[in-house]
């Protein structure tokens, strides 16, 4: 971050601070501030946010070298907020500085062909994320930077967890910015009004029957008392923000960016939706919050989500969320510096929000078993947008539905097999932009003595270390993986195991000319498999990939397609899961 009005580096955030001369009753809702920012090939109105007291902040950056200038305005007009101006000069980073922190390359966007991700300067970005939904809370304490040792235990900090995951190749973490009604307040974790309206559907805090505490040193995200009758001390007033909570989150987002990590920020979880819509000025209230979060974090290197829509029960319909989200975009525009909009959905952003929506990065999410990887194929065929599996099987997951025998000991080989099914099955089904991992104990940030799995223990599970091998598999031919098209039906058989499972299935993706074919066989898939749809007489060089250690085996002997166009594939080394690449000679 920089507050300088002199010389800065590109993609470095500047906080322009203003002091209002007017006393607003509710500054968050009663006033709007902005700057009109001009620079090389850039002219945008950038909105700011109330930051407590009489302070307002507009966060800007330069996305190109050169001279930049700005002029402020406000509604209503205020002498301290309107009519201010300034300028700065932006310079490029050196090659060494770019290598030290890839976020200096700019915002994450779609690759040229719309299938993958890249930094603003065109450098490829293969997303490998972890699920830290509770990061804004006290459960991820931010320590002095010098203490980041990567040591795992009760004393671990956000710094340590970042060090562990960076060493394993992760470059993204997912978080939910606000859990407004969650607190270990002695009331049940799941609360409904007499008419069935959901007040909260929170995770249960281990050792209690109440909700998880999600405060940080700044307090909770919104102010109390709230507007929900009978629950004024549970559900806050969503029209009164607590800036101190978000200042704490600011420091964590800054730290992640400084470490080269890209936060995927979801602004609110869906269980707040029914009371928000029923007892507040909907869609205005939610649209205001969407814009607030874009203003607060749109000049960080992030991915932003207007709603964590991981489940369609206990909330309002997805189309009802579309209304305030679209209102915010129509009124204020999409994030000014190119931040992609996405969401953790159920089952997919395409199903939930439709085609031609505000979604820039498609996701499938909170649907676990391998039959659901198909949603990525559906999105691939529907729109040319990058896609990932954002919430697949969680390592150590003990809350599975059918069939119940799927529960396996955490960090066992079966547990890792399930994770790898999600990694490679999702990628070859169309999730070419990357993958977000999750683990029991981490996704809900368990730190209580009664927790089934402490989060610092889960960080040591081997499945997390194996996530990095997906990139090794995908990029064996550089960026050619972005040319792949899902075509699982080319490999036969491909579905010998049950749908609600992670074993027995096979996957395939190929370039349009079928000169490069990538396959993945889950554990227990048939040892004999064939590939159809290839040209008789073509010859391929096969090469197996071990997803346990990320090693490519030496190429085998060339194989030729017989006259019937059905190619018998070489048997994989054993009955475990394996990747396979076929290169046409």
From TrEMBL:
InterPro entries from the xrefs?
Apiosidase-like_cat_dom, DUF5060, GH, Ig-like_fold
* Cited Gene3D superfamilies: Glycosidases, Immunoglobulins
Q: Name one Pfam family in it.
A: DUF5060
Q: Where is the DUF5060 domain?
A: 8-74
Question: So where does this one cross the membrane?
Answer: none
Among SUPFAM superfamilies, the record links this protein to: (Trans)glycosidases
Q: Which domain of life is it from?
A: Bacteria
Q: Where is the Apiosidase-like catalytic domain?
A: 111-473
Record protein name field: DUF4038 domain-containing protein
